[in-house]
Amino acid sequence: MANRFIDAQRIIRIFGEKYEILIPDDPGYYEKLFTRRAFLLFRQEEYEEALEAYSMAIVYASDVKYLAQMLTSRSYTYLKLGDAGPYFVNIDRFFAAYIDASEALKLDPNSFRALFFKGKALAALGFYSKARDCYKDLLKLIQKEDKSVNEAIAAIDGKVSF
Description:
By secondary structure, the protein is mainly α. The chain has helices at 29-43, 47-59, 64-82, 87-107, 112-125, 128-142, 147-156, and strands at 10-14, 17-21. The longest helix has 21 residues, at 87-107. It is globular. 33% of the residues are buried.
């Protein structure tokens, strides 16, 4: 197997210590590696490890659309982790899911998944009216009725926001 690093290495000094910087010859190598790892771990329901892999894939993201997809996937992973335990322990995970979904929507305003996960995170945080607005925006975006969106709206109907 070929060496994945360029032969020409840069040497830098930090506080008198000598470090070599290895530059991968394929800039998308780590992006693909961590994405595949995250998908595999998520399917195996190892959400904590998948979260770390998605975070690394975000670090190595090469374009805006890909970054939006990884943020959306990480948002879903946070939601899965948040559903796994008591609410008071997992509120930070729901908030992180909201942040990732919001950032993904800034990068790709037409992302159905990001809008849906943002609504799920808002509902989990108790912001039912804002979650309902997200779901209604999603229905406008897809321009048809969707069973999962209608179920999400029905789940929060009648609940009062904080």
